[in-house]
Amino acid sequence: EDQVTQSPEALRLQEGESSSLNCSYTVSGLRGLFWYRQDPGKGPEFLFTLYSAGEEKEKERLKATLTKKESFLHITAPKPEDSATYLCAVSAGNMLTFGGGTRLMVKP
Amino acid sequence: GAVVSQHPSWVICKSGTSVKIECRSLDFQATTMFWYRQFPKQSLMLMATSNEGSKATYEQGVEKDKFLINHASLTLSTLTVTSAHPEDSSFYICSALGLGNNEQFFGPGTRLTVL
């Protein structure tokens, strides 16, 4: 059974304080690892897809990396508008298995 | 980018009534759509997989007679919550799988409140 665990559950940062979110996974035949951002009362917004260990992708202040067991979402010099829940999901077929998410709060 | 819409955005209904939620892929065709439910401060839980022209596949514990899914075209899937009860109150989110890839694009969600 595919499993995804995200840590920490919640993270409070000061504006400009860089940090990383962790996503540990077990899956048979990884087809992709996905990161989404979700704001309260809205659907998940696609950020990145990673397909193989060693792959990295960047978008503005976010950088996602992947190993065979986990993925990290690095946030560099975050701003208050980066506050959201970040979801990690894995796919072994067409279906996604989500982690519990990390609620990020960035204070000015 | 791929856009998925849901209608309505929110709905309040009385216990015992049925509610239909629509999910549309606006700029691409989706042979497969998914329906999720999300309770406050929890992650998304897959309810069912909807395939165009065939019966939906439901996850364990999801009542197929209560949550009716119809995927009549490559751009539209509907979820009907029948005889809704207060415990069905939740945030329902759909996603659509683009042709030729395994990336899911999510709708904005529908907030259902059953009184």
Structure description:
The complex is a heterodimer of chains A (108) and B (115). Chain A is mostly beta strands and 108 residues long. Chain A is 0% helix and 58% strand. In chain A, the strands form two sheets. In chain A, strands 2, 4, 5, 9, 10 and 11 form a six-stranded mixed beta sheet that branches. In chain A, strands 1-3-8-7-6 form a five-stranded antiparallel beta sheet, with no helix packed on it. In chain A, strand 9 (84-91) and strand 10 form a beta hairpin. Chain B is an all-beta fold and 115 residues long. In chain B, 0% of the residues lie in helices and 52% in strands. Chain B has no helices and eleven strands. In chain B, strands 2, 4, 5, 6, 9, 10 and 11 form a seven-stranded mixed beta sheet that branches. In chain B, strands 1-3-8-7 form a four-stranded antiparallel beta sheet, with no helix packed on it. Chain B starts with a strand and ends with a strand. The mean pLDDT of chain B is 92. Chain A binds chain B through residues 31-32, 34, 36, 41-46, 49, 87, 91, 93-96, 98-101, 103, and chain B through 1, 4, 6, 32, 34, 41-46, 49, 91, 93, 95, 97, 102-109, 111.
Summarize the structure.
The complex is a heterodimer of chains A (108) and B (115). Chain A is mainly beta and 108 residues long. Chain A contains no helices and eleven strands.
Q: Residue ranges of chain A: pLDDT <50 for 5 or more in a row?
A: none
Shape descriptor of chain B: globular
Gap between N and C termini of chain B: 37 Å
How many helices of chain A?
A: 0
Summing up helix and strand content along with how strands pair, one would put the structural category of chain B as: mainly beta
User: What series of H and E elements makes up the topology of chain A?
Assistant: EEEEEEEEEEE
What is the helix fraction of residues of chain A, given as a range? under 10%
For the biggest sheet of chain B, the summary is:
7 strands, mixed
The radius of gyration computed from the alpha-carbon positions of chain A, rounded to a whole number of angstroms, is 13 Å
Mean pLDDT of chain A: 95
- Whole-angstrom Rg of chain B: 13 Å
- Taking the alpha carbons of the first and last residues of chain A, their distance comes to 41 Å
Strand content of chain A: over 45%
**Pair of chains with the largest interface and how many residues each contributes:** A-B, 22 and 25 residues
